[in-house]
Design brief:
The protein is globular and about 55 Å long. 21% of the residues are buried. A hairpin with a 2-residue loop joins strand 5 and strand 6. With 151 residues, the protein is α+β, with helices and mostly antiparallel strands. It has a single domain, classed as 3-Layer(aba) Sandwich (GIY-YIG endonuclease), CATH 3.40.1440. The protein is 19% helix and 31% strand.
């Protein structure tokens, strides 16, 4: 079962310079979902002139089914054809992935609902690296400076 993005199949040829993505996996049998993020590359090392150098290597994103053990067991139990892997956002950096994953999890209230596999949220985000706010034209924050003015 492959990944889909905007209703179309998404594969290695679509990655380009993107860093990662935020996704939703749908269980068609039990009607449960999982929100997560995945990077197209992972950290690795190689020897360069006798020194160990940090490099980015391809990740297992094409075969990835999330990090939740209950979800992984359900995929084994029901079969991959009973699930849809949907990419919600393509991200240009790690901070965008982390922020948009958190935003989706909070907006969908995944910790409060039984129809989501998500059972914990852990995130580290810095606002200075969020590029999607300016690059994509999304307005997730207010530009209202009047909140801080003295009256």
């Amino acid at each position: 079962m492959s990944w889909t993005y905007n209703g179309h199949e998404f594969n290695q040829g679509n990655v380009g310079s993107s860093f990662g993505f935020v996704y939703c996996i749908h269980n068609l049998v039990d009607k449960k979902r999982y929100i997560g993020k995945k990077f197209f590359t992972k950290a690795g090392y190689k020897q360069v002139k006798g020194k160990r150098k940090k490099v980015r290597k391809p990740s297992d994103w094409e075969k990835y089914w999330g990090s939740n053990n209950t979800l992984i067991n359900d995929v084994k139990k029901h079969g991959e054809d009973k699930f849809i892997r949907e990419i919600l956002y393509i991200c240009s950096n790690r901070s965008d992935c982390a922020y948009l994953e958190l935003k989706e999890q909070i907006d969908r209230r995944v910790l409060e609902r039984e129809d989501y596999y998500n059972d914990w949220i852990m995130v580290k985000v810095t606002g200075k690296n969020l590029r999607f706010l300016t690059e994509s034209g999304h307005q997730y924050v207010s530009n209202n400076d009047n909140w801080y003015s003295e009256t």
